[in-house]
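Sharing a chain and its predicted structure for anyone who wants a worked example. Both blocks are below, sequence first, tokens second.
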Amino acid sequence: MYKTTDVLYAVLTVFQGYCLQYFLGSFLESRMKSRWNRPCVAVLYIVLRMAFKWSSPPGYGDYKTAIGMLAVSLCILSFIALCFYKAFRPVTVFLIISFQAVLDISSYAAVILLDKVGAGILDTVDWCAGKGVFASENAFVMAIKVSTVGVLSLQYLAIAMLLYFSLKKIVWNFHEKEYNINRTELFFILIPAAVGLMICMLLRIIMFTVEDSVPKTLYDRYPILVVVIPVILLLSLLSILCGVKLFQDMVCWNREKSGRIILKKQIVSLQEHMEEMERIYSGIRGMKHDIKNTLAVIQRLSAGNSVEDNVELQAYLSELNRSFENLEVRFKTGNTVVDTLLNMKYHEAVRDVPGLKMDVDKLILPQGLEIHSYDIGVILGNAVDNAMEACRKLKAKEPEAGAFIRLSSLQKGSLLILKVENSFDGRLVRRRQEEFPITDKADKSSHGIGLANIKSTAEKYQGTMDFKVKGRVFILSVMMKNERREEDGFWSDR
């Protein structure tokens, strides 16, 4: 009987090891790049837990023993995390506390709920024995053993299912796994798990009592606790899951707020540069009106034969060329916002990334463009910013590498497709369940949201965004319906 119990406990421990490596591996980066990292985590956990069980003192009534057992369990989890993962992050504290809390809550809830079921099954076996159902004492003993093992197996199965689905829910809800949690946020998401741990430790201390040398459980004295305690435990477990979901909603809200701030700055910047572009265009129109007078001056000066006249002519022509250079607009797509944006980004790029080639010859916007120029500017602005950053990193690592940005467009029926291609260093980091690549900037809360802004803007026009890597070229594609959206309240400039 004891061997069967040990085997069932060992199987449950193996499953716990699997859950642990899945839980930690979903958040933390492995120290070992090989495929053996996760199996090693599970094996070490199994060995330590089995050794801890065999060396644990009997009985749970002593509060010092309960505190000591909890401390050892947390030390085991911390040791494994530090050995196999780059675990020097605030979120590691949450992972360790949460795993132990979910495990303890699942264990107590399953055992208490199914303990009465087991007692009922044993009472049924006794009743059958009294009615002479069993032909021999051996048959009765065998029925008792089978019933006990069956109930224990059912309890362990319930523990495993509660543990697995709870951890999976936490992993699923915790979208921002690379988010740098600050002290206040860590305290916020730790409270439900810490409360769950304290409830379980309290139950471990007060659950078993001895009356007249007979061990009894707390709910033997107060039967209503068979329902109340599991409900409290399940509510505690639910608070952990809801706490994670609420925390992620707060992160997403803050990220959206940051995105709005950045978009607002982009609007102001576009408006300022559009005013500058209008000034340049006005200057060009003014020069067209004055061109005849300019030619007349040139002709008069060229009529002189002296060297001084020729020097003066050359100086005048040089000054005239410089004026034209200042009024030069490198990119002309026919859209004021896009022209302004691309020219602004180009001058910024060539200053920061020497040798950068920017090609927009295939960026042709249709005459009947119904998409707000503001939205086109948001998409191209974020896309070019990301491309410039990628080229900057490439040049920093490989000064001789060719850096380029290519923009193009394609009209298919009512669909407008924008494509931005750029060279990069070939390193693109993505985590499971993460939609966009991970930014390598230190301030991840205000960076790495460019693709999210592009996607949300495209979705306003029933569109979508996609990206792929081809060798060392990053290709971003945005597809939108060429439709007006007056309800947005934005101006359009064609």
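Comments welcome. The CA atoms of residues 5 and 149 lie 7 Å apart.
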